[in-house]
Amino acid sequence: MTPICSNSTYGWYDKDVDEVQVVFLEITDNEDNYADDEATTVEHYYQVSIFSKGNSEQMKIDIKREMKKAGFLYQDGANLPEKLADGSMLYHKATRWLYTESLI
Hints:
Elements lengths: L7 E3 L10 E15 L2 E15 L4 H13 L3 E7 L2 E2 L5 E14 L2
Parallel strand pairs: 1-2
Antiparallel strand pairs: 2-3, 3-6, 4-6, 5-6
């Protein structure tokens, strides 16, 4: 995939970062599609979150494009703004993705 943001991490948002941050996390994986009692695929569910103090809509569009090019299927998304203690806003755009891995 093409790098979109130089500040990306696996796991959790770093509240000390004062710029756009992309966080990705595998939420779950499930075996699926069985043949002869053996799973033939694994479904991986990921969340990709964008945290920013400003407009990050273009980054969301860019991430969606690159994730789709890499074979992920968009599941859903949400805008989750949060007012911080100092009165500023932290904008959180969350997107959820499915990637199906073949085991055969």
